[in-house]
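C-alpha cells in:
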C-alpha cells in the first residue's frame, strides 16, 4: 500500500513531533509544520520529512501555507491541526483577533477550509487537538476576541472548546463529502507547552511537578490512533476523545446551533486579513 500523506501542524516539539516520528516509522509520508524554522527543520531532517514554517499568529502565513500544500500535494489523507498554546496577557494579532483564539481556533479553521477541495477529494481525516481545558471555556459569539473579562485560562479553554465545536460542524457540513474528523484531549504532557505564558499551569511544566506529567509519546497516542484507525469502525466522526475513548466535553460543545454560528463567525473573522491586504471588494 502506498504511503499516505499526513500533515501535522505544531510538529516541531511535544506531541506533534512525537506523532510525526511514530507515523514516519510506520511508513507514512509525514509533512511537518512548525513556527520555529530551526526546530521544524531539525525534526524534518531527523525523520526524512518535508517541512513548512508558518506562524499562526498571522493569517496571511496560514494562507501561504495552504497554497504551498496545495501546490505540492495532490492528495492529503490526514490533516492534524495540532498547533496551539496558552498565552499571556490579552493581545491582538496583526489580523485584529485575540491571539489565543486565533492560534488555537481561527488559524486551523482557515487552514482546513483553504484545503477543503483536496481534503474532500482525498476522503481525508481531520484531527483537532483540543484539551480537557475546554471545560472551563465559555464561548460568547459576541465576544470571540475576549474584549470583556479576559483571563489566560478562560481564553485557552474557550479556544479548546471551539476546536470541539469546529469538529462537530465540520462533520455536519462535509461528512457526506468524505471528510471524517475528531477532536481529542492528549492529557497533560511534559513539554514546553505553557512555559512562556502567565497561566498558573506553567508551573507544572517548569518545576519538579513535570515528572508527574505524561511523556510526549503518551500524549501523542490518541492522535496516532485517530490517524491510523478506521473511522466509522474504530471511532465516531465528529466526536471528542481522550485515551482512545469517547469523552465528555463542556455542555456548550453539544450545541449544534452554536457550532453552526461559530463556523459562520469564524469565516467572517478570517476574512480580516484579506481586508488588510486589500483583496476584497
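Residues out:
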Amino acid at each position: 500500500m502506498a504511503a499516505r500523506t499526513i500533515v501535522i501542524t505544531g510538529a516541531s516539539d511535544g506531541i506533534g513531533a512525537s506523532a510525526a516520528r511514530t507515523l514516519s516509522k510506520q511508513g507514512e509520508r509525514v509533512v511537518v509544520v512548525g513556527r520555529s524554522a530551526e526546530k521544524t527543520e531539525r525534526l524534518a531532517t531527523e525523520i526524512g520529512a518535508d517541512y513548512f514554517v508558518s506562524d499562526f499568529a498571522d493569517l496571511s502565513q496560514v494562507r501561504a501555507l495552504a497554497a504551498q500544500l496545495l501546490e505540492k500535494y495532490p492528495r492529503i489523507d490526514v490533516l492534524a491541526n495540532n498547533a496551539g498554546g496558552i498565552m499571556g496577557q490579552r493581545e491582538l494579532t496583526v489580523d485584529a483577533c485575540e491571539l489565543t483564539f486565533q492560534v488555537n481556533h481561527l488559524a486551523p479553521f482557515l487552514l482546513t477550509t483553504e484545503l477543503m477541495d483536496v481534503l474532500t477529494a482525498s476522503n481525508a481525516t481531520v484531527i483537532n487537538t483540543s484539551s480537557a481545558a475546554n471545560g472551563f471555556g465559555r464561548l460568547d459569539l459576541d465576544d470571540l476576541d475576549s474584549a470583556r473579562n479576559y483571563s489566560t485560562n478562560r481564553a485557552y479553554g474557550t479556544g479548546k472548546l471551539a476546536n470541539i465545536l469546529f469538529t462537530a460542524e465540520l462533520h455536519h457540513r462535509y461528512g457526506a463529502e468524505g471528510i471524517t474528523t475528531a477532536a481529542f484531549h492528549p492529557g497533560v504532557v511534559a513539554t514546553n507547552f505553557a512555559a512562556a505564558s502567565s497561566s498558573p499551569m506553567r508551573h507544572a511544566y517548569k518545576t519538579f511537578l513535570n515528572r508527574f506529567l505524561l511523556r510526549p509519546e503518551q500524549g501523542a497516542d490518541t492522535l496516532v490512533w485517530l490517524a491510523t484507525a478506521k473511522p466509522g469502525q474504530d471511532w465516531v466522526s465528529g466526536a471528542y476523545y481522550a485515551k482512545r475513548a469517547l469523552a465528555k466535553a463542556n455542555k456548550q460543545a453539544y450545541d449544534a446551533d452554536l457550532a453552526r454560528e461559530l463556523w459562520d463567525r469564524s469565516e467572517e473573522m478570517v476574512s480580516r486579513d484579506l481586508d488588510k491586504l486589500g483583496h476584497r471588494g
